[in-house]
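Most newcomers find our protein records easier to grasp once they have seen one. Sequence and backbone structure share a record, each on its own labelled line. Nothing more is needed to start thinking about how sequence determines fold. As an example, a complete record with its sequence and its structure tokens follows.
=====
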Amino acid sequence: MKPLDLHVFDASAIGLSGLCLLHCLALPVLAAFLPVFAAWAEAEWVHLLWVVLAVPLAGVALWRSHRSRRLPRALWMLAIAGLGALAAGACGWPREAWETPATVAGSAMLAGAHVWNWARRHRHAGA
């Protein structure tokens, strides 16, 4: 697999994490001003959609990178923790009040794992 193909997966995953952060942080503010956005801010299907998109995208990006160069265990742990926090936030577990903090933390961890992966690949490609 060409390095460009792997970069596309990481870039897509980072972009998805950014959209998730935007949804979690900006949409509630917009909902205060425009009632149309209120439905999106509270729609549970949107949260589940993020998780359904994030899990396979992150999995493919990291697994393909792992096959070409073994990834550090800490990178895997960061990605799995991020996906777990995203899933917990989407399900409102353990409490609904933790939904936004869990989702934001999970999105940040997952994006961090992809940035780390991208940087590792870039560093190894130049070596």
Observations:
- The chain is about 85% helix and 0% strand.
- Residues 85 and 106 are 5 Å apart (CA to CA).
- The two ends are 18 Å apart (CA to CA).
